[in-house]
Write a structure and sequence with these properties.
about 350 residues; alpha+beta; eleven-stranded mixed β-sheet; globular
Length: about 350
């Protein structure tokens, strides 16, 4: 999926550490579909993810920032997969260990450094190894307290330790997914949590009543204003003149809230897919937050939607071939071409909500 240069720069600074422990370098298993225990709207009702876009909000046009340079205009829409696992005191303690790098086989190889431990079943969290080149974000949620741990560059095979890329930072723990403000996380360039704006199981069929998390090529983000609230950070390479943020519009950057103004009748638009129609309503009611960077390759520019693994499997029939990494969706569930056209149409209707400020 996408290659996050911010992570690659961090990897180059990592110490070699201990000799690697024995760890499988492939894990070609179907993600386990554990019960979906999370609240339907994680975080407090007053959080940025759950509050509607104000009808009287001030907007600024960012169409040129997204589509002006054909090298970076979105041509493909793919999920940025997020795995959610749940602790269970009846299960054994599982070691969460630091791995040795972003790419395989380093991602699937333990450094031997123990970060923390959690009670997990043999298959909890194995979905994190499904996409071998993506961000591999994961959350370990304790249903007894509704506090979560968050990690990135993850990997787990059944019965093995759960591996993660970056060091054990305080902001990666005790994320309150029931009553928290949804502003603090670990693994996104913006500093926002992976559970924020996540497409969950059934939402592409029944409606999305929260904001979405989205990602665009880093070059499109403002070169002069690297992030705005609610983001608390930007990619570490944002200021790099060669591959950092290169956009001219200060209103399109990390943390930007995109929304369709209320004077547009989204129900009158002839959407190509029912899923696109649902996302359009979401874009108007709650908006889409820019939370991280995606990738741009010759002829293919990726725009990402944050999607929980269960939703990817069941709501779009998402599949990844183990040998080639080729991604596809089940055409009986989702018209991928029509859906991409719909998402791009939505983006052309959105504007940046420049009045989006702390309450």
């Amino acid at each position: 999926m996408k290659l996050n240069v911010r992570l690659l720069l961090l990897i180059l600074m990592l110490p070699l550490g201990c000799p690697p422990a024995t760890q499988p370098q492939s894990c070609d298993v179907t993600p386990a579909l554990e019960p979906d225990l999370l609240p339907r709207r994680p975080f407090a009702e007053s959080s940025i993810w759950n509050r509607p876009v104000p009808a009287d909000g001030a907007f600024a046009d960012v169409t040129e920032a997204i589509f002006g340079d054909p090298r970076y205009a979105p041509t493909r829409v793919i999920p940025d997969l997020v795995t959610v696992a749940y602790t269970d005191p009846a299960q054994p303690l599982v070691r969460i260990e630091k791995n040795r790098g972003w790419r395989l086989p380093q991602r699937a190889t333990s450094s031997g450094v123990l970060l923390y431990e959690r009670h997990l079943s043999l298959t909890a969290g194995i979905g994190v190894s499904w996409n071998k080149v993506g961000n591999a974000l994961f959350n370990i949620v304790d249903p007894a307290t509704w506090l979560a741990d968050e990690g990135v560059g993850g990997w787990r095979c059944p019965g093995q330790p759960l591996l993660t890329l970056l060091s054990d930072a305080p902001r990666s723990h005790n994320i309150d997914v029931l009553n928290g403000d949804g502003l603090r996380g670990y693994g996104r360039g913006s500093g926002l949590p992976a559970l924020g704006g996540l497409l969950r199981l059934g939402e592409l069929k029944n409606g999305v009543n929260h904001a979405l998390a989205v990602m665009f090529p880093a070059h499109t983000y403002s070169s002069s204003r690297h992030f705005v609230w609610p983001a608390s950070a930007a990619d570490q390479y944002a200021g790099n003149l060669l591959y950092g943020y290169g956009g001219a519009n200060p209103n399109f950057t990390m943390g930007t809230l995109l929304a369709i103004p209320r004077d547009i009748d989204v129900h009158a638009v002839p959407w190509k897919t029912p899923q696109g129609a649902i996302l359009a309503v979401c874009a108007q009611q709650y908006g889409w937050y820019v939370v991280d960077s995606s990738t741009a390759e010759p002829g293919v520019t990726v725009m990402c939607l944050a999607v929980e693994v269960r939703a990817a499997l069941q709501d779009i029939g998402y599949a990844i071939e183990p040998d080639t990494g080729h991604e596809s969706v089940n055409p009986a569930i989702l018209d991928a071409v029509g859906f991409t056209d719909d998402v791009i149409s939505i983006l052309r209707m959105t504007k940046a909500v420049v009045s989006n400020v702390p309450s």
